[in-house]
Design brief:
0% strand; Arc Repressor Mutant, subunit A; mainly alpha; 2 domains; 210 residues; Tetracycline Repressor, domain 2
């Protein structure tokens, strides 16, 4: 039996995702209904349930697409099957991660998560953390757990904590300012490179003068 989605089916799914993204960003998660999305995209409620099961599933699909873009770039620019020097890997990872996490669409979705994630006992927030952010972390965690890399790291700091700390130092303060202050992240190529280098220096060496 052929279960591969048809071109028409894929196009219909993409229309739901695009319409959902626009309305979620305009109204927020709580105030968006599947009826709103169907009106904008066409199609039927049955089709939404078929593709995504429910509104949460649609929102997750929208966010997961951002991770898929990230993973595609990682696979294209970093061969994870090869060994890498610690700093070289972090430079490549940080450059890709910063561009994805600070993309205008990503910051808008993050703003929705900050305002809506804790509602309904944190249902949406938990899904976001478990299904999306954990995937970003896993790329770093797997790298930090390689034997040749692990012996270079402080054994008192777990790979999980190290991954979280590195991601935080790379994305801030720009990502946070974009979410809370609605500031566009308008760094040029040289400024992005300097930010990446500074982030890695802070992560590896701290800020204390040596």
């Amino acid at each position: 039996m052929n279960t591969k989605p048809t071109k028409r089916s894929a196009e219909r799914k993409e229309k739901f995702i695009q319409a959902g993204l626009e309305i979620f960003l305009e109204k927020g998660y709580e105030n968006t209904s599947l009826t709103d999305i169907i009106k904008k995209s066409g199609g039927s409620l049955a089709s939404v349930y078929k593709f995504f099961e429910n509104k949460e599933g649609l929102f997750r699909a929208i966010v997961e697409r951002g991770f898929d873009d990230f993973r595609t770039q990682i696979d294209e620019k970093i061969d994870l099957s090869l060994s890498h020097k610690l700093e070289d890997f972090l430079i490549k990872f940080a450059a890709i991660f910063f561009d994805i996490i600070c993309d205008k669409e990503t910051t808008l979705i993050s703003r929705v998560m900050m305002s809506e994630g804790a509602k309904n006992d944190g249902m949406l927030g938990k899904a976001f953390l478990e299904q999306i952010l954990s995937k970003f972390d896993k790329v770093l965690i797997d790298f930090f757990e390689r034997e040749d890399i692990k012996k270079q790291l402080n054994p008192d700091i777990s790979p999980y904590v190290a991954a979280k700390a590195f991601a935080a130092v790379v994305r801030e303060p720009y990502h946070y300012n974009a979410i809370l202050l609605n500031e566009d992240i308008a760094l040029n190529e040289k400024e992005r490179e300097e930010h990446v280098k500074t982030s890695i220096n802070i992560f590896l060496h701290g800020i204390k003068k040596r």
